[in-house]
Amino acid sequence: MSKLNNNKEDIGETNKEEMPVEIEYPADMVKKAQEFRNYVDSDRQDMVQNHYKLMRTNQCMAFSKKMLEKYSFDKPRARMTVRECFERLQNYVDSSDPDVSLPNIIHNFQTAEGMRKKDYPDWMQLVGLIHDMGKIMFLWGCEEDGQVGTAEGPQWALGGDTWVVGCKIPDSAVFSEFNKLNPDYNDDRYNTDLGIYQPNCGMENLTYAFGHDEYLYRMCIANQSTLPHEGLAMIRYHSCYPWHTGGAYRQFMNEKDHETLKAVLDFNTFDLYTKDESGLSKDSNLDDLWAYYEPLIAKYFPDPNLMW
Q1: Spatial distance between the Cα atoms of 146 and 161, rounded to a whole number of angstroms
Q2: Model confidence, pTM
Q3: What is the pLDDT of residues 244-263, one digit of tens each?
Q4: Rounded distance, CA 204 to CA 13, Å?
């Protein structure tokens, strides 16, 4: 499945803090690779920079624990279909994204369609469609939760690059100058390379800065989705750029994580490099696309009336 130029021996090194991975970019990209993830002088710079400052100031171990408890599935907050969720998100714009200002649901279709055009497995196309759907959390958020749910308001517990809480935030994290603002920065339990974890404990056993990734991952499990392990990993880790692109956290990886990393990087080429302001728009007629994707949703989610 992977279309990446990876050296498995290099990936297996456990002591490198940063190890960028060479990515094979899609040949039909609309923009040049270096035009994506511009955190220096994009048209949305002030909003994006403020988003990450708020993330780093508030996202700590205590906050992640609080949000995991709040957004457990012991008592679901709502039931709705995937399409109904998309309708609720139709005007949601991600304040952490320097690349595009389109509603997030358009980005989701762009990601899925990019995979479909390349004949990727249907489950991976579905992951492309739903991967940002966890931002529906804004419906139940409040200001102290960092997810009021508008592009103008705080979204620091919804979108943006995530990292592992409970250990040192790596320098490969975007806007690393804000790392010192984190509540765990001066806590001896949490500010070393291992922190509270054991070497090679596995990426699935770590706690992450809370956001739409973690929420949707848990939502898929709660709804007994039949997506394969790789698909669930793409959902959970797609925003963890310090790991999959920056080369951090190799000290925690186990044998299975090397293959997981390849899958997440493969997904990332479509998540990132299919963004295009000139393609689908918020006014596009999506009925034909829904006709294709709704059977996929039914295939991998047994009950269409999902718990949220």
Answers
A1: 15
A2: 0.84
A3: 999 999 999 999 999 999 99
A4: 18
